Amino acid sequence: MTTPEEATRKRTKAILLVLAGLFLLLVLGNVLGWWTSGTSVVGPQGYVPISHGNHVHYVPNGWSGEPPIGQFPQTPPPPGQTIGPNGEFIPLQ
């Protein structure tokens, strides 16, 4: 027969084990991108770089996948500009 202290200790260990497992699951999911899409990052400049094979395209924040990534520039916009929804450089507002 277990004492109340032993039962409490076992319950505490079980709770800590479950919490550690949930934490590891969240970390693994974040690393593997289970909860994000390829375009979910928001850059403070109004655009984000997205790797495309051996090069990078710069797409606007909120890009939905249309138009195709090939229409976007492979260089960041010049100072004072950002990338528009169709891949053109537009002035910052």
Describe this structure in words.
The radius of gyration is 23 Å and the shape is rod-shaped. It has 2 domains: 1-35; 47-91, no CATH class. Strands 1-2 form a two-stranded antiparallel ribbon. The mean pLDDT is 85. The chain is an alpha+beta fold and 93 residues long. 31% of the residues lie in helices and 19% in strands. Strand 3 and strand 4 (89-91) form a beta hairpin. The longest helix is centred in the N-terminal third of the chain and has 29 residues, at 4-32.
Top keywords for this entry?
93 residues, two-stranded antiparallel ribbon
Layout of helices and strands:
Layout (H helix, E strand, L loop, with lengths): L3 H29 L14 E6 L2 E6 L20 E3 L5 E3 L2
Antiparallel strand pairs: 1-2, 3-4
Give the distance, in angstroms, between the N- and C-terminal Cα atoms.
73 Å
Main β-sheet, in a few words? 2 strands, antiparallel
The strand order across the widest sheet is 1-2
- The computed structural class is alpha+beta
Helix content: 25-40%
The average pLDDT value, as a whole number, equals 85
Strand tally is 4
Shape: rod-shaped
Number of discrete helical segments: 1
Number of domains: 2
Element-by-element helix/strand order: HEEEE
Low-pLDDT windows of residues: none
Summarize it:
The protein has 2 domains: 1-35; 47-91, no CATH class. Helices cover 31% and strands 19% of the residues.
